[in-house]
C-alpha cells in the first residue's frame, strides 16, 4: 500500500519534533554540565583561598558557586567555616543552616559546626539542640558528644555534662579535653578526688596540657594537699 502524502508529511513532522526535542535535551545536558563545572571551579578556588587564610575572598568565591548552583551543599558549608574564621558567627550559623536544609539527613558536620558556633555565642540552649541533631545523625561522633557536654556544663548541668563527656571518652578514649572537662564538672560537684582522676588522665594523654595541671592544682588545694598543689602549679607554669 502506497503511503499518502498526508501520512508522509505527518511522519516527517514527528521525526523533526523528536530530533528537536533530542537536540534541546542535549543542549540542556551540556548547559547543566557546564554549570556544574563552573560551580566546582569557584568552590575549589574558594578552598584554595581558605587554605591561604584569605577568608573574605574565599567567601566571594563560594558565593559565586552558590549563585550558579544554590543547592551546592559544599559551598554553603565552606562559606560557614570562612565566616566562622572571621568571627561572623551569626552569618556562619545561617550558612550552616542552608547546608542542613539542602542535606538534612546527612549533615552531622553542619549541625556540629552550628552547635560549636552557638556555644561560642553563649547560646547553650540552642547549642544543645544542635548537638542532639548531630548525634542523631552520627551517634559515634565524639566531638558532638564533647560539645554537648560543654553546653550542658555552661548551663550548670554538671551531672548531664559528665554523661556526655563519658560518651565522648567511650568513643575516643584519648580525647584529653573531654577528660579535663569531665574533671571540671566533677570539681563543681565538689568531687575533688574524682576530678583529679580526670585531670590525671588528661595529663597522661597530653603532659603539656597546662589547663589540666592548673585545674589539678585547684583540686589539690581544696583537699588541703598544698605540697602537691605547688608541684602541679609549677607544671602548669
Give the class-level CATH name of the domain at 8-103: Mainly Alpha
Backbone shape: elongated
Number of DSSP strands? 0
Total of helices: 12
- Strand percentage, roughly? under 5%
Terminal Cα span: 104 Å
- How can the largest sheet be summarized? none
Helix percentage: over 70%
CATH architecture descriptor text of the domain at 8-103:
Alpha Horseshoe
Spans where pLDDT lies below 50 across 5 or more residues: 11-16, 22-35
Average predicted confidence as pLDDT: 83
The succession of helices and strands, N to C, reads: HHHHHHHHHHHH
CATH-defined fold name of the domain at 8-103: Serine Threonine Protein Phosphatase 5, Tetratricopeptide repeat
Q: Give the helix/strand class.
A: mainly alpha
Rg over CA atoms, rounded to whole Å, is 28 Å
CATH superfamily of the domain at 8-103: Tetratricopeptide repeat domain
General description of the model:
With 237 residues, the protein is an all-alpha fold. The chain has a domain at 8-103: Tetratricopeptide repeat domain (Serine Threonine Protein Phosphatase 5, Tetratricopeptide repeat). The chain is 81% helix and 0% strand. It is built from twelve helices and no strands. It has helices at 5-51, 55-68, 73-85, 89-102, 108-120, 124-137, 142-154, 158-171, 176-188, 192-205, 210-222, 226-236. Helix 2 (55-68) runs antiparallel to helix 3 (73-85) and helix 11 (210-222) runs antiparallel to helix 12 (226-236). 40% of the residues are buried.
Amino acid at each position: 500500500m502506497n503511503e499518502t502524502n498526508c501520512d508522509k508529511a505527518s511522519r516527517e513532522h514527528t521525526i523533526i519534533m523528536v530530533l528537536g526535542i533530542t537536540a534541546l535535551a542535549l543542549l540542556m545536558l551540556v548547559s547543566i554540565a557546564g554549570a556544574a563545572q563552573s560551580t566546582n571551579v569557584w568552590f575549589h578556588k574558594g578552598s584554595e583561598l581558605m587554605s591561604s587564610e584569605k577568608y573574605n575572598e574565599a567567601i566571594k568565591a563560594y558565593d559565586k558557586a552558590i549563585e550558579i548552583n544554590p543547592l551546592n551543599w559544599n559551598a554553603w558549608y565552606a562559606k560557614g567555616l570562612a565566616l566562622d574564621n572571621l568571627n561572623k558567627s551569626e552569618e556562619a550559623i545561617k550558612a550552616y543552616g542552608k547546608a542542613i536544609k539542602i542535606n538534612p539527613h546527612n549533615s552531622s558536620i553542619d549541625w556540629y559546626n552550628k552547635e560549636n558556633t552557638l556555644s561560642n555565642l553563649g547560646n547553650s540552649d540552642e547549642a544543645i539542640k544542635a548537638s542532639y541533631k548531630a548525634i542523631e545523625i552520627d551517634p559515634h561522633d565524639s566531638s558532638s558528644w564533647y560539645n554537648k557536654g560543654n553546653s550542658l556544663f555552661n548551663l550548670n548541668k554538671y551531672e548531664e555534662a559528665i554523661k556526655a563527656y563519658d560518651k565522648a571518652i567511650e568513643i575516643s578514649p584519648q580525647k584529653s579535653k573531654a577528660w579535663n572537662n569531665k574533671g571540671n564538672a566533677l570539681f563543681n560537684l565538689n568531687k575533688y578526688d574524682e576530678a583529679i582522676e580526670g585531670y590525671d588522665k588528661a595529663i597522661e594523654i597530653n603532659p603539656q596540657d597546662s589547663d589540666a595541671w592548673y585545674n589539678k592544682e585547684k583540686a589539690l588545694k581544696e583537699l588541703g594537699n598544698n605540697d602537691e598543689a605547688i608541684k602541679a602549679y609549677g607544671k602548669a607554669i
